Automatic annotation (TrEMBL):
Keyword match Transcription: yes
Gene3D superfamilies registered for this protein in UniProt: DNA-binding pseudobarrel domain
Membrane spanning residue stretches: none
GO molecular function ontology, one term from the record: DNA binding
GO cellular component: nucleus
Predominant location: nucleus
InterPro entries: At2g31720-like, DNA-bd_pseudobarrel_sf
Ranges where the record places region Disordered: 61-90
Gene this protein is translated from: LOC102669231
SUPFAM superfamilies in the cross-refs: DNA-binding pseudobarrel domain
Keyword vocabulary terms for this entry: DNA-binding, Nucleus, Transcription, Transcription regulation
Bias type Basic and acidic residues, positions: 71-90
Subcellular location: Nucleus
UniProt protein name: TF-B3 domain-containing protein
Length: 266
C-alpha cells in the first residue's frame, strides 16, 4: 500500500496520459500496478490502454473464481479408467508377500490327546551348501538333503552344564522326520510311559565333516516345542571351539533310512 501511495503522489502532478507516457522509458504493458492506479486516476491512461487494463481485470477475476480441479479431475479420470477395465486387467496396489506357512500335525504324547499342530514358515529359497559338504553326502550315498534352519548360538547352547543344542520347531523350515521318528520322539522309559524321553539316535557331521553319534530329543516348552541334540553335544562344541554368537546352517539328509544332520559354520 505504501508503494501505491508513493506512486500516486509522484504522478499527482501529471494531468494526462501523454505526459505520463513521456516519463516512461518503456512501452506500456498492462500490469496489476497499472490496474490499481487506473481505478483512481483513469485520466493517466489512453483509451487503448484502459481497454487493455479492462481485459486484464476480467482475466484475473476469471482465474480467481475458477476452482483448481485439475488434480481432482485427473484422479477421477484414472479411477474411472481402472474401473472400466476387466477385473483380470486391473492393477492392484503392491503388497508385501508374507512367508509361506506349512501346517504340520504331530501325534500327541498319548492316543487320548489330539495331534499337535505345528506351523512352519518358509521365507524363501534354501541357501547354497558348500561343495565339500555336497561331495561328502554323495560319497556316503546320501539323499533327501534338506535345509532346516539358520542357528545363532546362544550362551545356553555352548554352556558346558547344559550340554545341548536347541532347535525351536517353529524356526525349522521344513519337516524332516518320518512319522515313525515323530512317534519315537514321544516315547518315554518305564511301563507307565511317564519316565524319561527315549530320543532318536542320529549322526551329526560337524563343519570339518567329522561324525558324532548322539540322540535327538523333543522338549515341550512354554512357547514352542524344541528339538535338542543332547548327551555328547559338548564334544562337538569343544572340538569345533564353538562360541556364543557364532552362526550355523543346519541341514539333514539320509543314508538309507538313517537320519543325519550336517552343521555348516558361517
Amino acid at each position: 500500500m505504501r508503494d501505491l501511495k508513493t506512486l500516486k503522489e509522484l504522478v499527482a502532478s501529471v494531468t494526462d496520459w501523454k505526459s505520463l507516457e513521456k516519463m516512461s522509458c518503456k512501452p506500456f504493458k498492462p500490469s496489476i500496478l497499472h490496474l490499481a492506479i487506473s481505478q483512481d486516476a483513469p485520466h493517466l491512461y489512453s483509451e487503448e490502454q484502459l481497454i487493455q487494463l479492462k481485459k486484464l481485470s476480467k482475466l484475473l477475476s476469471s482465474a480467481e473464481s475458477k476452482p483448481n480441479t485439475n488434480k481432482t479431475d485427473k484422479r477421477v479420470t484414472k479411477k474411472r479408467q481402472i474401473e472400466e477395465r476387466p477385473k483380470e486387467e486391473r492393477v492392484m496396489p503392491a503388497t508385501i508377500k508374507k512367508p509361506r506357512k506349512i501346517i504340520l500335525e504331530q501325534n500327541g504324547p498319548s492316543p487320548d490327546l489330539p495331534p499337535r499342530r505345528i506351523i512352519l514358515e518358509h521365507s524363501g529359497p534354501s541357501p547354497d551348501l558348500p561343495m565339500q559338504f555336497k561331495n561328502r553326502v554323495a560319497e556316503l550315498s546320501g539323499h533327501d538333503l534338506k535345509y532346516l534352519m539358520h542357528k545363532r548360538l546362544f550362551w545356553s547352547d555352548v554352556k558346558p552344564n547344559n550340554n545341548r543344542l536347541s532347535m525351536p520347531i517353529n524356526e525349522i523350515m521344513c519337516e524332516f522326520l518320518t512319522q515313525a521318528e515323530i512317534e519315537k520322539l514321544d516315547e518315554r522309559n518305564g511301563s507307565n510311559g511317564k519316565g524319561r524321553l527315549v530320543g532318536l539316535e542320529l549322526t551329526v557331521l560337524d563343519p570339518c565333516l567329522r561324525e558324532f553319534t548322539l540322540p535327538l530329543k523333543k522338549w515341550s516348552m512354554q512357547r514352542t516345542d524344541t528339538y535338542n541334540l543332547v548327551t555328547d553335544w559338548n564334544s562337538i562344541v569343544s572340538t569345533n571351539e564353538f562360541e556364543e554368537g557364532q552362526e550355523l546352517q543346519i541341514w539333514s539328509f539320509r543314508i538309507d533310512n538313517k537320519l543325519y544332520l550336517l552343521l555348516n559354520k558361517l
